[in-house]
Amino acid sequence: RICFPLMLASLPTMATGEEISVALQESWGDFWLFRFFINAAGYASIVVPGFLLIQYFKRRNYLETGRGICFPIIKSCVFGSEVKSLHQEDSSLPPRAEPTESSTARQVFKLVFCAAGLQASYLTWGVLQERVMTRTYGATETDPGEKFKDSQFLVFMNRILAFTVAGLYCALTKQPRHGAPMYKYSFASLSNILSSWCQYEALKYVSFPTQVLAKASKVIPVMMMGKLVSRKSYEYWEYLTAALISVGVSMFLLSSAPNRHMSTVTTFSGIVLLAGYIIFDSFTSNWQDALFTYKMSPVQMMFGVNVFSCLFTVGSLLEQGALLESVRFMTRHSEFMAHAVLLSVCSACGQLFIFYTINQFGAAVFTIIMTLRQAFAILLSCLIYGHTVTVMGGLGVAVVFMALFLRVYARSRMKKRSKKLPPGDTPIQKV
User: Fold this and answer.
1) CA distance 431 to 429
2) Are the CB atoms for 274 and 214 separated by under 8 Å?
3) Which pTM does this prediction carry?
4) Max Cα separation, the chain?
């Protein structure tokens, strides 16, 4: 008689406990660090068996003893042709077309076309990126709607389209004979996936202008990675501009605005994610720089990296069961489908515009265009999404972009000076 009433009285408490446990599971599932380790475990399930297979083929000296229909595939993936270029700068990019006096109008048209293509691609990409990660879909007067949470699916969408575009380009145009072992692309691919994931996740905790300035400050870790990975040396003006960039970013981050919207508050998680993005992205650029010692074009690099990116992301999504859930979200919200597809199109087209601009006008012109794009991106984000910037924050932004333009100017002067050096004198290698 006593136990039965006690059991009835405890039922609401047990139900509440179950609701609390479910809520805790959902909160842990949404926590970025938990998702990071889950994604990393998914990548490890592909990387570890692949590493063991590569070691097995190398120990067996498969290059000399292997036979059969699988031999060309294994040779290409594990060994490659091992043909490297003696001059990295000559092989990393196609020869740049020098403008002539008779085609000045055509060169101006090409420059406008490249600048417009880069600005349109990446400004649209930035606006959509912030829309997808910070706003809800399906909101009505009675329903608050739901946010899309899986950043890895967006990375997969971007990579699958970039892989398709690069593959078609390589198939339709003449490319250098490929010599790099395919597995070496996996290092750049893995760091590229993680940097993109951190970039998307960071928008949940920091404003888009903060993210853009953090990207500008990646010059510093790129230099550090260059010393560690490629053993590069740098000149005094490179250290000076890097210090100015860090000062400008610090001024922006330390600035505070009254009545700032909650979505623009910089949190510790956002800082950690931005640091992760910068570190992974710095490794990606330096590893790709080392891979260019093999004879390959930038589009071949794009294809090789995205092959592994698609493999890693789709494998991890399938293991987590997140691929079907993201597809269901896409079918529930057609607006999200349009945004995700347009996001991928802008990313793929932007990469092609990068290659074409550098090929036609060189890295200095490309850097100026992209620096202006970052400034326009901050302005556009503030206008569309209502981010506020204080006077101190504005001065920090100005210091960052002044340092970036100073860096471009100093680098162009150094290149002109290096051309006048006598034979045998080589300039210091730069990022």
Assistant:
1) 7
2) yes
3) 0.78
4) 104
Distant-in-sequence, close-in-space partners of 418: CB < 8 Å, separation ≥ 6 = 426, 427
Residue 11 sits at the vertex; the CA angle it makes with 9 and 14, to the nearest 5 degrees, is 125
Q: In this model, does residue 225 exceed pLDDT 80? A: no
- Gap between the terminal Cα atoms of the chain: 81
DSSP-assigned letters across all residues of 187-251: HHHHHHHHHHHHHHHHTTTS-HHHHHHHHHTTHHHHHHHIIIII-----HHHHHHHHHHHHHHHH
**What is the C-alpha to C-alpha distance for residues 363 and 354, in angstroms, rounded to an integer?**
9
In angstroms, rounded to a whole number, what is the distance separating the alpha carbons of residues 68 and 378? 56
> What is the rounded CA–CA span in Å between residue 163 and residue 302?
7
Q: How many CB atoms lie within 10 A of CB 282?
A: 24
pLDDT per residue as tens digits for the range 108-144: 888 889 999 999 999 999 999 999 998 999 888 888 8
Quick one: which of 129, 167, 162 has its CA closest to 148? Answer: 129
Q: What is the dihedral sign for C-alpha 365, 300, 352, 339?
A: negative
Q: How far apart are CA 6 and CA 11, in angstroms?
A: 9
Mean pLDDT, residues 72-83 taken together: 78
Q: Which one has a higher pLDDT value, 328 or 415?
A: 328
The whole-angstrom separation of Cα 252 and Cα 387 is: 13
Note the helical H segments in 258-333.
Answer: 268-291, 298-320, 322-332
Render pLDDT for 288-327 as a digit per residue (tens, 0 to 9).
888 888 888 889 999 999 999 999 999 999 999 899 999 9
According to DSSP, the residues that pair with 294 across neighbouring strands are 84
Distances in whole angstroms, Cα of residue 55 to Cα of each of 40, 50, 74, 290, 341: 22, 9, 12, 22, 39
CA distance 337 to 105: 40
Dist CA 159 CA 310 (whole Å): 6
**Phi and psi dihedrals of 146, rounded to 5?**
-140, 150
Whether the CA torsion 172, 96, 354, 81 is positive or negative: it is positive
Tokens coding 236: 């005094």
DSSP element (H, E) containing 329: helix 322-332
Nearest to 378 by CA among 356, 401, 351: 401
- What's the sign of the alpha-carbon dihedral 64, 290, 315, 33? positive
